[in-house]
Amino acid sequence: MSVRIRLKRMGRRHSPFYRIAAMDKRRARDSKVIELLGYYDPVNKDESMQYKLNVERIQYWISVGAQPSDTVRSLIRRAGEDGMPPASAKAAVSKPAPAPSKPAAKETPAAESPAKDATATASSQSEDAAE
């Protein structure tokens, strides 16, 4: 049996709530689960209450071969070690600082080009060999 860690949709229409569950890969999205591993509430305005994961059990399922879905994988990364959102969740979601610009590479003059030096060396070696 191939196990997948994925979201199971709950809640009302236009008000989604998801349970994170270990399920057989071949089962329907909202069908029977093997084990519930947490929840995800994207509608909740308080970012510290948007999700909660049982990280120990998730690590166990991954160690025995379960594959997390893309969304669950991103939630695991956001949760970190303890399964709860970081205290400064807003700081973690903010844009990263721009990368420092790289200095411009120095251009070599055409006379010092390595390709021309290689051809000049090869032609002088062939002249030496001919003599």
Structure characterization notes:
With 131 residues, the protein is α+β, with helices and mostly antiparallel strands. The chain has a domain at 3-89: Ribosomal protein S16 (S16 Ribosomal Protein, Chain: A, 2-Layer Sandwich), CATH 3.30.1320. It has 4 helices and 5 strands; from the N terminus they run ββββαβααα. It has helices at residues 55-63, 70-79, 89-93, 114-130; strands at 3-12, 15-24, 35-40, 51-53, 67-68. A 5-stranded mixed beta sheet has the order 4-3-2-1-5. The longest helix has 17 residues, at 114-130. The model is unreliable at 88-95 (pLDDT under 50).
CATH T-level topology of the domain at 3-89: S16 Ribosomal Protein, Chain: A
CATH level-four homologous superfamily name of the domain at 3-89? Ribosomal protein S16
Approximate shape: extended
User: What is the class of the domain at 3-89 in the CATH system?
Assistant: Alpha Beta
What is the strand content?
15-25%
Mean pLDDT across every amino acid position = 76
The CATH architecture of the domain at 3-89 would be 2-Layer Sandwich
Care to count the β-strands? 5
Contiguous runs where pLDDT drops below 50 for at least 5 residues: 88-95
Class from helix and strand fractions: alpha+beta
Main traits of this protein?
31% helix; S16 Ribosomal Protein, Chain: A; five-stranded mixed beta sheet
SSE topology sketch:
Blueprint: E1 3-12, E2 15-24, E3 35-40, E4 51-53, H1 55-63, E5 67-68, H2 70-79, H3 89-93, H4 114-130
Parallel strand pairs: 1-5
Antiparallel strand pairs: 1-2, 2-3, 3-4
